[in-house]
Design goal:
The complex is a heterodimer of chains A (115) and B (109). Chain A has 115 residues and is an all-beta fold. Chain A is built from no helices and eleven strands. In chain A, the strands form two sheets. In chain A, strands 2, 4, 5, 6, 9, 10 and 11 form a seven-stranded mixed β-sheet that branches. In chain A, strands 1-3-8-7 form a four-stranded antiparallel β-sheet, with no helix packed on it. In chain A, a hairpin with a 4-residue loop joins β7 and β8. Chain A is globular, with a radius of gyration of 13 Å. The mean pLDDT of chain A is 97. By secondary structure, chain B is an all-beta fold. Chain B contains no helices and nine strands. In chain B, strands 1, 3, 4, 7, 8 and 9 form a six-stranded mixed β-sheet that branches. Classes of the chains: A mainly beta (115), B mainly beta (109).
Amino acid sequence: QVQLVQSGAEVKKPGASVKVSCKASGYTFTRYDINWVRQATGQGLEWMGWLNPVSGKTGYAQKFQGRVTMTRNTSISTAYMELSSLRSEDTAVYYCARGLSIDLWGRGTLVTVSS
Amino acid sequence: QSVLTQPPSVSAAPGQKVTISCSGSSSNIGNNYVSWYQQFPGTAPKLLIYENNKRPSGIPDRFSGSKSGTSATLGITGLQTADEADYYCGTWDSSLSAVFGRGTKLTVL
């Protein structure tokens, strides 16, 4: 089954970092870029950046430059998104999603930032 | 403020047709493919339309997409109550960033 399986919900304090994983299965991980998109409760979709699994090259939305790091481990077909200096406004569901057409989405990881 | 403009809500009766617009600019829609996504509460978005007008396997032909210049449109015919959801348009822009509309809530009356 073609799918992206994400790690479980996280609760973090302001100022901390969070690292979310996204494991690909059912397709060749290195054939498609991985995007990260977040969605705050009741809000729209916000693209954070992309990762090329072959080269490790990344592209980040300007808003997240300096705070986000996207990496991968090709041996286990897994991509990671780490967001640092968390604040309450970062509370959201974080999705990984595949490719240029963004045709396959993980189920999302809820990250709650609260003191 | 989203780069792509969608109406906040649309509504129509079961069996009718509805269209959802998505307006952008030459730096995004005007020079890139448009995708459309359907999202039910508490679930991940699902791809409905890609490359302006193509449907992934399993998406019924009641859903269609089109693009003209810097705007795109999603059409849904034969509306069903099960179509009630949020719909998002998305594309890429000249800075190699993905951009989305703010979403349109479809109500089937």
